[in-house]
């Protein structure tokens, strides 16, 4: 049991996006009745060259009383409407599919019938991309300005959901100003050691460089990034690696000028010889990075491939990582968040999305337990966190379930074992489209990163979901629903001049 009512000293180890969002959650939970301290090391830089959120980012800003316009102004953020994948099936630049943010089809307006998103099914059955269902697509194709996109969103409301691209360094600096303005204390120091009580394994203090007295701790949130001060160094918690299903372990970040008059409204993921290149626009420039497998490409070869595609660059550094997550992220009076709890390549912007989901779930659990949390709830929290990571792993693995075989990497990654959970679903999706019920095993409490329509978007784009699966669904629906969706498809063909 943890009695948060009796706690007075809350410490967040590490700043960055994860640390400052965690501090804001603590401040939301406990107000000014407790001491909340964020310890930032002057020797550690924020990781990230361009970052992107998913659809829980706007909700997180609202949760912490942050106005979107203020956030955009302070962080150089731009609106994001989804993801664009280039070359994943053939390696060619004209091989493009999209995963756009979208309002989930629902039975009330007839867009969902017997669990089938009817218009989506009609497009899949006829070999047309499901992005044509979305109001976002013309904005993306026309390189709409931020002002124009905001105007369309104002008119469409929930029918044009958005997230944001932003500079991670500026986000961390902005969140720091917000949190410290609300009473969170900032301590710039290097933590050298954790004091741990022998009788229960709880962290009681942090020993910092140049100070004889430890920083007192009643509850600790570890946001120390890849340093992983608690789960790895202190508690030696086992890590569940994704290497059996995914190959990437390196990234070279860099910057480029905007190639378009206006910032692109999607995160661009361009397939490369041994991985993929992210392109994330912010107001001033585009943050980029090559994510690749060191078993297939040396760092020098990766840099050469980047420059062969985009020209001379100034690489920030090479990031080495192991994809995976810790078995338990909440142990005793310590919880790890962000990179300190796990990491997977930044396809689909899951890093920040997962962190925000975990932080919110933590807050809901503490408040819902009246600030006295039984161990059974902490055990369940850890189980749900593992489930969340399993869903992310399977969704990312789906992106590599493609037809491309032209390089050693693409031959090897497509030959990797499929996770059993994903393989089971894939077998069903040869006969019908994904359903909400299929994805319940991935749900973390009230939150799930990707609903059935997201799996349809990527599954169609990679070829995992065949046209006949959608046709089989349509064959079971009432005739009037099918006729209406056929009329929709014909209007799409006319509007977008499709054959």
From TrEMBL:
Keywords: FAD, Flavoprotein, Nucleotide-binding. FAD binds at residues 15-18, 191, 339, 352. The keyword Ribosomal protein does not apply. L-tryptophan binds at residue 348. 7-chloro-L-tryptophan binds at residue 80. The keyword Flavoprotein applies. InterPro entries: FAD/NAD-bd_sf (IPR036188), Flavin-dep_Halogenase_NPB (IPR050816), Flavin_halogenase (IPR006905), Trp_halogen (IPR033856). The active site is at 80. GO terms for molecular function: monooxygenase activity; nucleotide binding. PANTHER family: FAD-BINDING PROTEIN, FLAVIN-DEPENDENT TRYPTOPHAN HALOGENASE. This is Tryptophan 7-halogenase. The lineage of its organism: Bacteria, Pseudomonadati, Pseudomonadota, Betaproteobacteria, Burkholderiales.
């Amino acid at each position: 049991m943890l009695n948060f009512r009796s706690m007075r000293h809350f410490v967040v180890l590490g700043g960055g996006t994860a640390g400052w969002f965690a501090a804001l959650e603590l401040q939301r939970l406990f107000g000014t009745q407790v001491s909340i301290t964020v310890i930032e090391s002057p020797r550690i830089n924020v990781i990230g060259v361009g970052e992107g959120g998913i659809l829980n980012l706007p909700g997180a800003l609202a949760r912490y009383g942050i106005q979107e316009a203020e956030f955009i102004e302070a962080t150089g953020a731009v609106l994001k409407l989804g993801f664009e994948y280039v070359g994943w099936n053939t390696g060619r630049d004209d091989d493009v599919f999209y995963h756009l943010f979208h309002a989930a089809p629902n039975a009330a307006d007839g867009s969902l019938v017997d669990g089938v998103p009817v218009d989506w099914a009609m497009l899949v059955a006829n070999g047309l991309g499901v992005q044509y269902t979305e109001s976002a697509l013309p904005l993306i194709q026309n390189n709409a300005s931020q002002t124009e996109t905001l105007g369309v969103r104002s008119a469409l409301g929930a029918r044009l959901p958005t997230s944001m691209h932003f500079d991670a360094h500026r986000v961390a600096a902005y969140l720091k100003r917000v949190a410290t303005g609300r009473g969170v204390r900032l301590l710039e120091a290097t933590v050298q050691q954790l004091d741990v009580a022998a009788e229960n394994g709880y962290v009681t203090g942090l020993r910092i460089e140049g100070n004889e007295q430890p920083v007192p701790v009643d509850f600790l949130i570890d946001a120390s990034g890849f340093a992983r001060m608690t789960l790895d160094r202190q508690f030696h918690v086992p890590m569940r690696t994704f290497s059996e299903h995914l190959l990437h372990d390196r990234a070279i970040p860099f910057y480029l000028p905007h190639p378009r008059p206006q910032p692109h409204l999607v995160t661009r993921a361009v397939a490369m010889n041994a991985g993929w290149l992210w392109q994330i626009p912010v107001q001033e420039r585009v943050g980029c990075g090559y994510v690749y497998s060191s078993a297939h490409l040396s760092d020098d070869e990766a840099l050469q491939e980047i420059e062969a595609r985009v020209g001379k660059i100034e690489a920030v550094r090479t990031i080495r990582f192991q994809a995976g997550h810790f078995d338990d992220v909440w142990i005793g009076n310590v919880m790890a968040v962000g990179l300190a709890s796990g990491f997977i390549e930044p396809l689909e912007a899951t890093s920040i999305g997962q962190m925000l989901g975990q932080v919110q779930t933590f807050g809901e659990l503490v408040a819902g337990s009246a600030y006295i949390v039984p161990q059974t709830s902490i055990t369940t929290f850890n189980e749900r966190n593992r489930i969340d990571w399993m869903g992310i792993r399977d969704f990312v693995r789906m992106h590599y379930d493609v037809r491309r075989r032209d390089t050693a990497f693409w031959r090897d990654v497509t030959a990797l074992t499929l996770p059993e959970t994903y393989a089971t679903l894939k077998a069903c999706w040869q006969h019908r489209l994904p359903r909400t019920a299929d994805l319940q095993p991935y749900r973390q409490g009230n939150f799930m990163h990707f609903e059935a329509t997201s799996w349809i978007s990527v599954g169609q784009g990679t070829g995992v979901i065949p046209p006949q699966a959608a046709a089989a669904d349509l064959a079971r629906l009432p005739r009037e629903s099918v006729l209406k969706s056929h009329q929709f498809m014909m209007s799409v063909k006319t509007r977008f001049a499709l054959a």
